[in-house]
Each structure stands twice: as C-alpha cells, then as structure tokens.
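Minutes, project check-in
Item: structure for the 406-residue chain
Input as provided by the requester:
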Amino acid sequence: MTSIKVPPLGESIVEATISRWLKNEGDSVAPGDTLVELETDKITVEVPSVTGGVLKKRFASEGDVVKLDQLLAEVDEKADGGRKEEGGGRSQPESKAVPLAPTPKPVSPAGKEAPRVSPAAQRVAAETGADLSKVQGTGRGGVISKADVVEAKPSAAQKPAAVAPPSSLRPPPSGQRETREKMSTRRKRIADHLLESQHATAHLTTFNEVDMSGVESVRGRVKEKIEKEQGVRLSLMPFFVKAACMALKQFPVVNAQIDGDSIVYRHYVNMGIAVASDAGLVVPNLKDADRKGMIDIAREIADVAKRARDGKLTMDDLSGGTFTITNGGVFGSLVSTPIINFPQVGILGLHKTQERPIAVGGKVEIRPMMYVALSYDHRIIDGQQAVLFLVRIKELMEDPALLAID
C-alpha cells in the first residue's frame, strides 16, 4: 500500500484546500496520473500517483483543508482494478505459473498509440481548442500535462472556445436583484494574507512624485532598437526595478525582514512583481535582480507575467521575495496605498503617468508626472529612511544615466 500525502507547497504555505478529486475509490491509476488538485492562495497543485494500482481509500473530501504531509489517499500496488469476472463481480484468481498479458495501450484511429493526458490538461484543451494529438507530453512517462497544453497553440483551423469572464465581471442574471457566490479558496487565502499583513505590521505610507521625462526620452530613443535586436519590449517597470535595487543597497533595512526579535538583512534582492489575473493576485519574483542588467530584467518580467497569466508559475517563482513593486497605473490608478507583502517590510506602488503643469526653473511646464508610494513596516523602518529611500528612487528615475552607475 502506497501513501499519497500533501507535498511541499512552497515557502510559508502549510495548508491547502482540496478543490477536486480526479479519481474515485476503486479506480485504476497509473504512475503519474493526477489523483487530486490542491488549491493554495498562490497556485493550484496537482498531486500525482507515484505508482500504479488501485485507489483504495481517500482520506479527505473536496473542500477540506489539509496540512503539509497529511495523508490524502492510499494506492494498492498489488491490486488490478480492471480484472474482474463478468456477471459475478468476483476477482479472477491470479495464477502464479502464467504471467498476465500486458494491458494493451490505447491507440488512435490512425493506428498510433494515443497520448496519455492528465485531467487538468483535458479541461484546458476543451477550453482552448488545443489538438492533443499534436501536443508533446513532458510529464512522467510522456503524460501530457496542463502546462504542455497551455504552451501549445491551436491551429488556424481551430477556433478556441470562448472563456467565461470572471464572476465579478459577468452581467447579473435577468430579473435577479442579488446573487450569492461562494468565495473561492484562493480568494479567502488572499484575504487572510492581506489581513495578516495589516494586523502584523505597523503600516505606514509615504508619497512622492517623479518627472518621467528622462525615462520617456530614453525609451523613445532605444525601445524599437531593443525590441528588434533583443526581442524584448522595454516598459517602465525595468527602470523602476533597477532603481529600487540600487536604492535598496543604500537603505538595506527596506530589504530586511523581522524574525522574532532579530532583523535579518538580505544582501541580495529577489524583486517581487505583482501580477493581476482572473484567479487573483500573484507575486512572482525575479531572483537576484540586483545582479541583472536592464535587458535581462525586462525579459524576465515579460516571462513571469506571461506564465502568471497562463497558470504556469512554480513555487520557486513565488518563494523567497525580499521586496515588491506593484503597478496600479496600468489600470488607470492615480494614487493608492499598497499593502505590504508580508513578511516583507516594504512595497513600492507605481501609478498612472499623467501630464501636469509643474514649476521648472521658475516657469510652468507640462511634464509627464507619476505619483509613487512606499508602504513600509514602521517597526524597523523609520520615517526618515522611508522618505530618503523614495527620494533616491525619484533621483534615479529623473536622471536615468545614474542607473548605469552602480
């Protein structure tokens, strides 16, 4: 009997919710078959069977909250779920002298061996119209996984199925004044995490504004060349990531973390980038962002943002962050107070760039301006340090040449 337990879920995640069982008790399973899907506040984890046999018992139900390393199910390796006598329902005795013939593998109409597909991959294929016969499986034993289907593009002859918008964006049913919907596990976890951040930290926010003329001028000169030669779109975010990394070196307490009655200073920067998706907010991070150049930062931001939207992030992407940047400006936000991504102690909020009249050298000029905000944990970051950190961000962004001097 093989025990199937809750696998490691990532840094600081100790529990998950069973969102769906894909196998019932008594079902035959093969190595690599997904038995159950677990949902955390960050990603959905598929738990596969590590052996073939029959799923004998499930120890939790859909909707149950399970802890790390908790027993989920047992698989009987010696049982054969497909070998039963017709009519009587009794298992046929197995002869030790004559080996059983191998179970024939399913074949496609063309005579080729049909690919094995995980249930999650089948669901995504139905939504996107992907042709599973043209998808190369990278899972254990060649199983086609959800990630394989997401990566594959449907052919021109196929028309992807329409994907329903999030419930919060759907029009209300005709004639109904109210509708009630159960909060998803991920949304509940996000809510708990944000409340924990508010309750566990001494939250304070300081503001400043940045003249974006210098950065916009640089981007205007080089963005087309970089996109053509490097295949990377140079947005504003890489400039802010670079500026934040340099400012964090000057003010390391903003990159620190509280551990009991100690302060842990990190001499590296794993920069978290907040990404909004239909499933909720996720914060993948760029490992060692302080050691990377602008082009590499831009390339990694585009990569993690795409994988976040496609549901292909790994726990490594979501673990180990030291500081976070969130950009509400892409949605039109002019000013906001971001919530710290606990247990970090600081988060930089970016907003919409908007032309405004400002005083420059005694004259009124129209400049592209952006409000920036730093929310910080006042338990270890003093107001002076927070203000000077944000002033340093302003200085670096208003004179982009300084970003090349470290």
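Outcome recorded: Residues 81-106, 155-164 have pLDDT under 50 and may be disordered.
No further action items on this chain.
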